[in-house]
Every structure is written in C-alpha cells, then in structure tokens.
Backbone:
C-alpha cells in the first residue's frame, strides 16, 4: 500500500514541534526567577508565584507578586523620567521605537516560543500573527512620534501612564499600550497579566538593548491587587486597561473624580452574520478563525453565529465537518490549530458556562477528536445550537472555544439579533452582495466591522468598543489621541460660584402672582409639567424672583430618555440636513435676541446681548462642523481598506454649568446634536429660564421631536439619575468636583463615556478652545469597517 495515498485519505499529520530550547535557555539564564523591571534595572525577586505552561501544567518560572511599594517605586521612576523623555524631539523618540521594532523582529523566534509556552496559544499564531503585529505596532508608532506635534498641535502627553493588560495576547496588548504611549511622550508602568508575564519581561530586556532611557518603561508583575495599586496611585495621570468588563467597571469607579485619563477595552460577544448568498466555504474558514483562533480567548471573537435560516442546515453540516478536522494539541506543534487555554481556572470557567447553556436548553456538538494525553488545559471546539437570545451562553462572554448559533430570517432580524447585547466590540458580515453588506455595517453597534473577512488587525486602524465593550481606541490616529490632552487643561482654575442671595420675599408666590407661570419642561417635542408637581424658584442676583421652573425627578428623566431614544433616527439623517437645522436654530434664536438677552440679564445681571450673540455664533459653528467632522480611509497591509466612520454616541445626558444660562447649554448641546446624538439637557440649575424659553426656538426650527429634551431641576440629583440610566450612552457634567466624581462612578453601570468639569472653570465662551474638535471628539466614536479592496 502506498503510504502517501494512505496519508492523503486519513489526513494524519506527523509531529512538527518547534523547539522550546531558546526559551528554556533564556529562562535558565534568569534562574527561572524574576523581579520587576524598574528604572532600567531588575529588582530582587520578592514574594513570588509560579507562571505555568498550560499545555503541561508545569511551572516555567517564578515571578514577583508586586506590592504597592513596588508600584510606587515604578511610578517614581516613570515620573522622574518623564521631563526628559517628553522633551526629546519626536524624531528622537521615534528612533527608539524603531530600534525596539527591529529588536523584536530580530528576536521574534524567542518571543514566539516563549509566548506559546506561557500562554498555550499555537506557535503558528504567536509566530505568524502576534509577534509580527507587535513589530508592526512599534514601526507604525515610530512615525507617529515624529509627526505628533504637527498632527496634534497644542496637545501634550498625559505624563505617567498606568497600563494593565490581559493574558490572551500578552505581548501584543503590551505593544498596543506601550507604543502609542511612548510615541506621544508619556512614560509607563505596565502590569502584565499574572498568567502570562514572561514576554513582557523579555520586552524589558529589549528596552535595555535599545538603550531606552531609564524609567521610561517599567514592568511590574503581579495579580489583581497589584493592578489595583496602579489604578489607585495618585501620581498616575492616565490608566489604560484591557480585560474583563467586570474589572473595567471596578477601574471606572476607582478612577472617578481623580482626573486621570481612562481608556477601557473590555469584553465582547461579537456577532458573526452569514447571509444566504455568502460564499459558504470562505465563511466557514473565517468562522474557524473567528472563534477558534487563540482557543476563542479573544475579546472580539465571533462567538455568536447568526445564520440565515434558508442555509442554516447546510451551513451547520459543513461547519461540523470542518470542526472534526481541527487539531487540538501541543501548542509548539506547527501543525496544530487549537492549543491550550491559559490556565485550569479558565477551563473550569468555560466548562461551567457550557453546562449552564445546556441546562438552559442548548444542544452541544463536539467533534470526536483526540485531546493530547497527559492533561493540560485542552478543550475540544464546541458548537451550541438551539439557544434563545436569553440563554446565558448567548449573552455572556465565554472566552473559550465555544460557538453559539442562532438563525435569522431577514436582514432586519439579523441586525436586531446582532445588536441584542450589552457589548459592542466587533461584528462580521458575510454576503456576496456589496449593497447588503454596506447597508448592514452602519446599523451594527460595534467598534469594528469586518466584511467577508474576520479578525483583521493593524496598527494604522483603530480598535475598540461601543457600549459595555469600553471606550477609547487603540491604534491609528484615535489611539494616539487617547495618549494626549490639550495643553491648556493644566491651566484650568477652580470655578468660583457667586454667593447665593436670600430671596427678598418670604412667599415666592407674591412675586409672580400665579403658579401657572412655572416654565414647563420640554420632552418629546412637547411641553411637559413636572411629575412631582413641585417647582423651584429662579432668582435674580439680588434675590428677586424671576420665575419658576419644574422640579424634575426620576420619572421626568425616564420620559425624556425614552423620547430621546425614540428620536435616534437623527443620527442617520444626513449631515447636511443636521447642519441646515442647526443654522435655522441659530437664525431663529437671533430673531429673538432681545428677548433672550433680557432674560439672561434678569437671571444673572450680566450682559445678555453678548451671550446671545455668542450662542448664535456657536450654533453656526457646529452647523458648519456637522458635514465636515468625518472619517478617514486607512490602508492596512491586508488587501483591504478600513473606513473609519465617525458615528454618534447615541443618547447623551448634558448637565450645563451654573453660569451663562444660554451659552453654557448651547456650547455643549450644539456639538452633540451636530454629530447626530439626541440629548437630555439639564440646563443651569440656577438660571434655567433661558433654556426653558428655548423650546419656542426649537419648535420653529424643524428640530425633530425628542432630539433635544429639557428637564429642569436640581443638577446633582438629576445627574445621578442620568448617570445610572442604562438608556444614556454618554454623560457630560459641568459643575462641582464632588458631583463630577459621583457621575463618573455611577457611569460604570453601562460603561458610559463621560466628560466632567470637576469643579474647574471651563470658559465655554472661548472659541479657540471650544469651537473646534474638543467636544466633537467627545460626542463621537469611530467605527472601523474593513472592506475587501485592492488591485
Ligand atoms: P481580568 O479582567 O481580571 O484581568 C485582566 C487584568 O486586570 C490582569 O492583568 C489582572 O491582573 C488585572 N486586574 C484584575 N483585577 C484588577 C483590579 N481590581 N484592578 C486592577 N487590575 C486588575 O480577567 P481574568 O480574571 O484574567 O479573566 C476573567 C474573564 O474575563 C475571562 O474569562 C474572560 O471572560 C474575560 N476577559 C476578557 C478579556 C478581553 O479582552 N475582553 C481579557 C481577559 C479576560
Ligand atoms: Mg502561563
């Protein structure tokens, strides 16, 4: 019998192992024991714990469990290094990044083998995906370092960045964090995940070899409490985190009120949508990559398969057949598809979730394939069908080699199912119909959309989530922007409110005659009485009663949010149309300039005419921006383009500052509306009448009902309700430090994006600062759509 013919039918593979020797030699050169890398030197190992090879469950090395004192030493080193590092020219910083990229390429085999041994991922992936992308990231950011000042004028680096990363792409996540931070001029303290610290420690040696100045990069190893020591350290200026949504929310709360910058890249439950006209074989190969790449331990894994009903049976048959050819085995074997999960605890977590999914009615399919003998964290690829969207496995991130399948009938149903999740990291679309693909992509609430492809990444293309998948982007221009802040922010002074004066009259009714004069709220395009039936007096600077407004409560907020969400069609009206409406709004405000000026004067005693003029001008400014603040097309190395689309955040809560009753609201509302958000506005608590008057302008300006809703009342109380409301996607609060902190902490519930003034005085009349992209950037999120393209 011909041996080759036999192999051809059985498709048996011989072993093709990559040698572990380089990595073992490196480990033993360090006596298999590591301290931290702080201020350019290795600390003596402290209390250590083992990092294991999950394919064998045997220890590889002992690493140090970082204490708060270790973190403090690292922060001090980073702080000391910052002035010199940030003062280098971009060219000089860029050369260091370039040197790091070169050295990573030079040592790529060691990196790949070490990564695979520590993490369990197949060598094919660490060698062909992780490490090349790491090098690419440093190369790309060498260029950003050089061009930073030109491309981000009037911006400065944060200072010291605390970076906490997960175990699924240990070195790649390090690169995503460190490259832009250094390019921007920051120094860093990075903590790798406790399961996978080794390549970060090897990276420290690369920094030494590149002669990176001491203290610019500090690596502190340890577990969650070491991470917590970073997030709570008072001398860290920005936190960048990738990991579970649960820990992301803890970090959001821990950093609330501190003024630290924050970016969060969290979990996902990304849909993988296959339409009936898809190239099925390609879609199946893509799916293998989407859910079994890295054993499914991928934040953007295509873990929810949505197949059009008419092809469901055929698709699942083919899929099962393909699953039976996947090879689970020694991660160092070059012909293995699926390696080991990161640790026994992850195997237990995944197994538990699968059990739950079956108990809740799902049907499990696992191919009859061998697992390697002798233990190790191996699982077979799994498919769960027959689930409803409410099944735990259909809604929770499993983070393992488990695919969950559901079917749909129409494109509308596909979109509804796809978006039926608290996450919004990525989505994949398969169809041969370009019109259908480009019709669905904008409807998906996800930060990355892949068309007829999946799991494409590149340093030039931003990556990050919508909704509870976090905020901020890594990669490209947006990624650079998240490591920079406006230079003027450090000059902000505390806001000092004018001392409140007592009302002249004991009985406020004496001044205004009748309760009917209480200004109404404005909800869903209609005037609304406050649910409470109570009103609040509005006083002049001398304490005279100027009028009354409703005292808004939870119910009023609920109605306003409902109306605002119902009006979200605003975000898909054309930018030209939004611009026209904002121009019209400005024009109609100008017609009533005298009336509004008088009202401002009555409430504040200040020159109302100039505030009205500034408000009209600001509306014009953002009308002008509506059709200009748009996206980009990136050219990654893949045969694709990625269109970076600027999208609205959704429904925003805006709590205007106490001062400038008209401009204070307009300066914040105009950019939000221009970018297609719908808004629940709480106008100045002290002087709300300018905005309750504003409904008349809205009504004559074609602003669709529900696009702008106005609820009056106590700012602090309404801020809390809004910050906790799941129907709000982002919240801006201008006011005191204590309420700012509360808003940021309460926003953790659904990971809202926030902007708060933290008791500082933002002079919103400053056109230079606030008529440009400052608020536009904060009112939008970028969706990167990857489209096959190329000659
Ligand atoms: P994790 O979110 O706990 O760990 C990520 C990083 O955060 C690690 O470096 C960890 O030491 C650190 N950390 C933990 N608690 C912290 C705290 N209170 N303050 C600061 N840093 C802290 O993720 P874990 O426990 O390793 O995995 C649990 C689950 O999370 C996984 O099963 C998976 O579902 C999900 N996960 C998702 C990731 C993603 O990228 N979407 C990445 C890692 C985990
Ligand atoms: Mg390990």
Residues:
């Amino acid at each position: 019998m011909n041996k080759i013919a036999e192999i051809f039918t059985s498709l048996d593979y011989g072993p093709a192992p990559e040698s572990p020797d380089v990595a073992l030699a490196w480990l033993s050169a360090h006596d298999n024991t590591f301290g931290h890398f702080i201020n350019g030197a290795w600390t003596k190992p402290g209390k250590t714990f083992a990092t294991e090879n999950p394919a064998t469950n045997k220890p590889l090395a002992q690493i140090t469990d970082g204490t708060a004192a270790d973190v403090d030493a690292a922060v001090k080193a980073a702080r000391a290094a910052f002035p010199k590092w940030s003062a280098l020219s971009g060219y000089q910083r860029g050369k260091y990044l370039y040197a790091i990229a070169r050295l990573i390429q030079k040592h790529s085999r060691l990196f790949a083998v070490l990564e695979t041994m520590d993490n369990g991922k197949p060598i094919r992936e660490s060698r062909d995906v992780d490490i090349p992308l790491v090098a690419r990231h440093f190369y790309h950011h060498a260029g950003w370092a050089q061009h930073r000042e030109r491309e981000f004028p009037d911006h400065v680096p944060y200072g010291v960045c605390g970076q906490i990363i997960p175990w699924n792409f240990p070195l790649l996540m390090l690169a995503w964090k460190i490259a832009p931070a250094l390019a921007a001029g920051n120094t860093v303290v990075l903590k790798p995940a406790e399961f996978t610290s080794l390549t970060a420690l090897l990276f420290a040696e690369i920094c030494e070899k590149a002669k990176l100045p001491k203290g610019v990069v500090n690596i502190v190893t340890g577990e969650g409490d070491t991470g917590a020591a970073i997030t709570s350290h008072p001398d860290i200026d920005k936190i960048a985190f990738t990991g579970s949504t649960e820990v992301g929310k803890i970090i959001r709360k821990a950093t609330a009120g501190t003024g630290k910058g924050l970016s969060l890249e969290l979990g996902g439950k990304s849909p993988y949508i296959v339409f009936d006209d898809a190239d099925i074989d390609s879609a199946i190969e893509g799916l293998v990559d989407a859910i079994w790449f890295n054993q499914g331990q991928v934040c953007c894994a295509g873990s929810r398969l949505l197949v059009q009903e008419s092809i469901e049976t055929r698709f699942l048959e083919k899929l099962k057949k393909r699953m039976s050819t996947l090879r689970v085995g020694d991660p160092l074997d070059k012909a293995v598809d699926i390696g080991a999960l990161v640790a026994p605890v992850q195997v237990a977590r995944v197994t538990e979730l699968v059990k739950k999914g079956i108990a809740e009615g799902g049907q499990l399919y696992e191919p009859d394939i061998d697992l390697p003998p002798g233990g190790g964290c191996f699982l077979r690829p799994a498919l769960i069908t027959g689930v409803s969207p409410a099944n735990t496995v259909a809604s929770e991130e499993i983070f393992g080699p488990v695919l969950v399948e559901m079917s749909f009938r129409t494109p509308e149903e596909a979109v509804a199912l796809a978006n039926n999740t608290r996450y919004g990291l990525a989505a994949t679309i398969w169809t041969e119909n370009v019109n259908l693909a480009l019709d669905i992509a904008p409807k998906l609430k996800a930060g990355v959309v892949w068309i007829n492809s999946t799991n494409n990444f590149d340093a030039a293309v931003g990556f990050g989530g919508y909704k509870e998948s976090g905020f901020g982007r890594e990669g490209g221009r947006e990624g650079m922007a998240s490591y920079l802040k406006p230079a003027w922010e450090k000059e902000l002074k505390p806001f000092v409110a004018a001392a409140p004066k007592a009302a002249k009259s004991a009985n406020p009714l004496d001044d205004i005659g009748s309760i009917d004069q209480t200004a109404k709220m404005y909800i869903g395009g209609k005037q609304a009485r406050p649910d409470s039936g109570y009103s609040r007096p509005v006083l002049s600077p001398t304490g005279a009663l100027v009028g009354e407004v409703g005292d808004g409560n939870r119910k009023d907020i609920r109605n306003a949010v409902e109306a605002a969400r119902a009006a979200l069609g605003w975000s898909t009206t054309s930018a030209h149309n939004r611009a026209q409406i904002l121009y019209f709004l400005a024009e109609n405000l100008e017609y009533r300039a005298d009336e509004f000026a008088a009202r401002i004067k009555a409430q504040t005693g200040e020159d109302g005419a100039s505030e009205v003029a500034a408000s009209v001008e600001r509306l014009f400014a953002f009308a002008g921006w509506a059709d200009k603040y748009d996206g980009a097309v990136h050219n990654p190395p893949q045969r694709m383009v990625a269109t970076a689309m600027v999208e609205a955040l959704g429904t925003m809560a805006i709590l205007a500052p106490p001062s400038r009753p008209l401009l204070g609201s307009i300066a914040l509302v105009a950019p939000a509306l221009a970018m297609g958000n719908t808004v629940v506005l709480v106008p100045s608590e002290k002087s709300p009448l300018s905005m309750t008057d504003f409904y008349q302008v809205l009504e004559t300006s074609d602003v669709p009902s529900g696009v702008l809703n106005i609820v009056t009342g106590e700012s602090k109380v309404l801020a809390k309700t809004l910050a906790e409301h799941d129907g709000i996607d982002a919240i801006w609060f201008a006011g005191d430090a204590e309420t700012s902190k509360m808003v940021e902490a309460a926003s953790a519930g659904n990971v809202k994006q926030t902007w708060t003034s933290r008791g500082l005085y933002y002079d919103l009349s400053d056109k230079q600062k606030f008529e440009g992209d400052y608020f536009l950037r904060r009112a939008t999120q970028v969706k990167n759509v990857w489209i096959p393209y190329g000659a």
Notes: The chain has 28 helices and 33 strands. The pocket of magnesium ion (ligand 2) is lined by residues 51-52, 54, 118, 195-196 (CB under 6 Å). The two ends are 47 Å apart (CA to CA).
